[in-house]
Amino acid sequence: MDFKLNLKPSFFFFSFLIFIFLLSKPVLGSASNPKCISSERQALLTFKQSLTDPSARLSSWSGPDCCKWRGISCDPGTSHVIKIDLRNPNQTLRLYGGFKEGSLGGKINPSLTRLKFLSYLDLSSNDFNFMEIPEFIGSIVSLRYLNLSFSSFYGEVPASLGNLSKLESLDLYAQTFIDEGPTSYNLRASNLGWLSGLSSSLTYLNMGFVSLSGADETWLQDISRLPKLKELHLFNCELRNLPLSLSSSANLKLLEVLDLSRNSLRSPIPNWLFDLTGLRKLTLQWVELQGSIPSEIKKLRLLETLDLSFNALSGEIPDVLGNLPQLKYLDLSHSSLEGQIHRLLDALSKNKGDGLVYLGLNSNSLNGTLPAESLGELRNLQILDFSLNYFTGSIPSSVGNMASLKKLALHFNSMEGKIPESLGKLDRLETLDLSSNKFSGAIPQSLAAISSLHTLNLSYNKLEGRIPKNPKFKDPSIYIGNELLCGKPLPKKCSRKQQTVVVN
Ligand SMILES: *[C@@H]1O[C@H](CO)[C@@H](O)[C@H](O)[C@H]1NC(C)=O
Ligand SMILES: *[C@@H]1O[C@H](CO)[C@@H](O)[C@H](O)[C@H]1NC(C)=O
Ligand SMILES: *[C@@H]1O[C@H](CO)[C@@H](O)[C@H](O)[C@H]1NC(C)=O
Ligand SMILES: *[C@@H]1O[C@H](CO)[C@@H](O)[C@H](O)[C@H]1NC(C)=O
Ligand SMILES: *[C@@H]1O[C@H](CO)[C@@H](O)[C@H](O)[C@H]1NC(C)=O
């Protein structure tokens, strides 16, 4: 009895240890070394056999443990294949054709549907030679991430994708750098009703270069049924319809990034847009926007990037834009905006945020003078482009305080007076274009101090005097009017294009 009683606790303790050991061993073992499930290995091999692989990217797909194959990841606990990442690594060579060598192609085998735990599938930047996106992709219902971008698919986007009810990220961006495509729009979606199947999960959608002309009447309603959406990219989708009202805009409250660029929307800026108060980035470039920029835009308090360039916007720029606390990038170029910019720049310069980095107002009908005080306060501004407007007056010497400036473009205005010597304080300046104005007097010799300056165009003014002797300007190409004049009669030295000095 005593013996038994003495034995019992240690026996239990000992068997408990063994039990823990047996329990933990497979878990620990598989965590460091998941072992491939043979039916899944077979499914992957079948998938591989249907692909073409000219650069042998799948050469590791032969050993017994498919979890170790290149591009495959398994769940550490269950060993199920959860991720297939076959994105072409040769992205940068895409433009030069090198991409094609690294591309996978051929057929996508339905054996993929046997991977019941696959949550991540990236076949992007490959070359599937204008075959259709297989319908059966829609039955891999475990998918959370699907990337078929840049892969030369053709035809109708299968509505079966609406069965992927867990999908969080869908990238179908259809631009291809292979020119042999049957049309410029290889993929199309005539109906986006299937998106409703993704309503409980989808946060990212990119259908750039997919023709949505067939879905034109309802595209926005369909999209607005995705209440979790954070990013929407519909660049160049043949959209022609931007509804002015949207009852369900409230559903898009989480939207942070909206890009509808390169569509023929031919519309004023609709008011429902200002309900999307989570927006950080709004890009409506080249969409034929008309009318003025409503001051309600001030409701988009989180906006960091606003790009409304290449439109037909008219009226004055609302100065409330200057109060957006996070604004870093503002491009309103290439429109028909008019009036003065004093109040806008005053607001921008008083802004307590990190500060504006990019300000493009070029190619509009803006006029008046440049505001002396506020301009000098834009200390984070790197790019200032006010060219091709009707600005008058002189350059305020406060520009010398814009310590971050890399590019100052004021060409094609009606500005006059002396060019201030304070420009020489801009020690990060790379490009200075003051051409086609009425500047007079001597060329400021302080420009010689800016070692970063590589492009200087002062032509078509009334300037006089010497060209500043910047060590970087050694052997510049010097323009007088349109005539190329080399400092020394050595033709070779004229070819240094990166260092251009232009005067008249
Ligand atoms: C990427 O491109 C280079 C040059 O064309 C080629 O040598 C290399 O094999 C490619 N890499 C892959 C993984 O295809
Ligand atoms: C999809 O893949 C491309 C490269 O092939 C990449 O640029 C893009 O960011 C990916 N999309 C997502 C949503 O991760
Ligand atoms: C998947 O979607 C298609 C097309 O919408 C539909 O016909 C099919 O029944 C769906 N399959 C499943 C398993 O839900
Ligand atoms: C500036 O342009 C506006 C609108 O085109 C015009 O009414 C105004 O007279 C112009 N002001 C100056 C100073 O040219
Ligand atoms: C300099 O400005 C003139 C007039 O604006 C333009 O015609 C010329 O192309 C410019 N030159 C360079 C090198 O940028």
UniProtKB/TrEMBL annotation:
Signal sequence bounds: 1-29
Top-level taxon in the UniProt lineage: Eukaryota
Its membrane topology: Single-pass type I membrane protein
GO-annotated cellular components: plasma membrane
Leucine-rich repeat-containing N-terminal plant-type domain span: 38-75
Swiss-Prot/TrEMBL keywords: Cell membrane, Glycoprotein, Leucine-rich repeat, Membrane, Receptor, Repeat, Signal, Transmembrane, Transmembrane helix
Coiled coil: none
Pfam family, one: LRRNT_2
Principal location: membrane
Subcellular location: Cell membrane
Homology family: Belongs to the RLP family.
PANTHER family assigned: DISEASE RESISTANCE FAMILY PROTEIN _ LRR FAMILY PROTEIN, LRR RECEPTOR-LIKE KINASE
Name listed for the protein in its UniProt record: Receptor-like protein EIX1
Native source species: Raphanus sativus (Radish)
